[in-house]
Predict the structure.
Amino acid sequence: PGQAERARDDLHGLPSRYRQLCRPQLNAISLPDKITLAARVLHAMGLDRQIAPLVLLVGHGSQSANNAHAAALDCGACCGQTGEVNARTLAQLLNEIEVRRGLLERGILIPEDSRFLALLHNTTTDEVEAFDLDLLPTNARQRWDALQPTLAEAGDRVRRERAG
């Protein structure tokens, strides 16, 4: 891939003032269904106990240009799209106060200061992009900022390993 940033064609035609407002949302399901969904997902991922202060939910996608097989390089579980929407939707769901209260009634404690953050791992460049950072409270944002050197080093190491 070139040096240019990943194309964000999902934002074409959307005025910049609305971009932060247009986040994936689960508006069509009831609160009990949201709680059930959250409980199932957390259990399936083994995250229904001892939840860290910052949990990274990482989707994956690729970056290519002029490639007829570009969709095949993205997430198969996401129908040839990146995992961005799924990661962002789940992070938002798990950060909802009402959902957390419902999970607590089912015996799943998400500590009050824990936050879920959606990321996208670019499998072409081995870089990660975080979403909805503006929704994080200060302590979670500080944790995210502290992770940056580690994530940059990990990406650098894997690129060097594959370079051979």
